[in-house]
Here is the input.
Amino acid sequence: MAVPLSYYLILSGFVFLTGVVGVLIRRNIIVILLSVELMLNATNINFVAFSEYFHNVAGQVFVFFALTVAAAEVAVGLAIIIALHRTNSSIYIDDLNLLKR
Amino acid sequence: MDHIFFFYFAAVIATTSVLVVALRNPVYSALALLIMFFHVAGLYVTLHAEFLAAVQIVVYAGAILVLYLFVVMLLSIKSEERYHNQLPVAGLLGVMLCTEVILLLIQSRTAASAPAPAADPVAGPGNTELIGEALYSTYLFPFEVASLILLVAMIGAIILAKKDLNEQAQQ
Here is the structure.
């Protein structure tokens, strides 16, 4: 007996929510980027589940594009973190208030 | 049998995703994310997406996470002492989204719990062949654009992480 589609949707909704809360409550930029990865993985689970249940391979192709964007985001995001650490010697978002001062 | 596998993978994915957010040390967060990636790959195998499961392990666990760990080690960050003071906003947003999901699921219970339409595994060409065919015919242009995105990200990362590009030019 196959697992109903709604179970996968509940799982991916939960993972996505965890990612949103992580982006909002953490102070470390690296952990914020890890939470963004959680959200991207939640959407990937949705894509693959729908692709299986509608017998359409397009959903799996779109996971590739999400993967590309995730890789690009990691490369640029970590470069920004290194540049920030070099100029500010801190990667906590509380310390990055140059525009507020 | 499917249910057992699904509940095992779902339980581990949910637990490790909470751990990624909750653990204080970024290295432990990254390792929890590694366990989550492996179990997401297992979930893909149960959904008959074997090629994506392999790609998930190679790209996410092999490349992206190693990059994160490199940066964590490079910056030698101490573990974080407290959470951000946006906690009320985060709690409010989390509760709102959670109730929204629950309401939607209650409303669409009859439609969502319908069984899969004729669960019949794809005969003939395998999963990899099907993805390759779709990628190089229907989605050829988005595929090329994806390579452009990667090129731009590579140039951007080099320029951002390079030390003082202007000063070197002046010397």
Notes: Chain A touches chain B through 70 residues (CB under 8 Å). The helical segments of chain A are 5-25, 29-53, 58-88. Chain A has one domain: 5-95. Chain A has a mean pLDDT of 89.
